[in-house]
């Protein structure tokens, strides 16, 4: 034995995109949306993704989340290459690694809130839990996001902010490592925007989730300690608050008021 302690290798990024290219169109070469985009996100980061409408932000989240496998380049998420997985591996990856939140909540109107939240588990044939156990687990997650008292309600009877909390609970149900939020406050008024975003910040800070937030709202972007701006299909700027400066970012966003 040499006696020297080997240095621990630097932690691999949780999300690692290299030279990502994505086209849409009939012949596959009509609309070149992502053009050699590279990005690394470490575990525990909270990153705003900004860019003009149509710049490929949703496309990017869909690729990271395994919803879209038609691209060129390398995508590694949570230590695995997302491309080429079987359907079963892919749904396992999406279930356990990724939680998605969308602008338009996408709740099922005919199901009670609690059943909307445990819906993802219906697609996990490997876990045989009773409906009562699933509902109990869903209620715990609803409690975490402050909306357990609406567990028996239908989504149509909830406000926009409450619906988004339910959608967040659904995204959290399988304890994902990464939360992908596509304009999560885009359908909410400004006050509800703040409370829902407070929750998302809390999930990053207290629960340690890695969060990517696509947003066009400046105040929301400023509250993220890192901000990635996409232009012409690649990362145009990548700003970080200095370490330990998070509270400053929050305060600045609060003061901006524009
Ligand atoms: N399923 C699709 N089929 C064809 N074109 C698409 C599809 N999804 C998005 N696009 C096009 O790709 C570009 C980027 O879209 P998107 O990723 O939704 O942008 P953003 O979320 O930044 O507004 C746009 O020009 C859009 O019209
Ligand atoms: Mg979009």
Put the structure in a nutshell.
With 258 residues, the protein is α/β, with parallel strands linked by helices. The chain has 8 helices and 10 strands.
What does it look like?
The radius of gyration is 19 Å and the shape is globular. It has helices at 57-64, 87-97, 113-118, 131-144, 160-172, 190-205, 218-222, 246-256; strands spanning 15-24, 31-41, 46-51, 72-77, 80-81, 98-102, 178-182, 210-214, 226-231, 234-240. The chain is 33% helix and 24% strand. 37% of the residues are buried. The chain has one domain (43-67, 86-256): Rossmann fold, CATH 3.40.50.300. It starts with 14 loop residues before the first strand and ends with a helix. The protein binds adenosine-5'-diphosphate and magnesium ion.
List keywords for this structure.
globular, alpha/beta, 258 residues, 8 helices, Rossmann fold, single chain, binds adenosine-5'-diphosphate, disordered C terminus, four-stranded antiparallel beta sheet, six-stranded mixed beta sheet, binds magnesium ion
**Could you please say which CATH topology applies here?**
Rossmann fold
Q: Identify the bound ligands.
A: adenosine-5'-diphosphate, magnesium ion
Structural class: alpha/beta
The strand line-up of the biggest sheet is 6-7-8-3-9-10
Q: What is the makeup of the main sheet?
A: 6 strands, mixed
> What letter string, H or E per element, gives the SSE order?
EEEHEEHEHHHEHEHEEH
Radius of gyration: 19 Å
Tertiary shape? globular
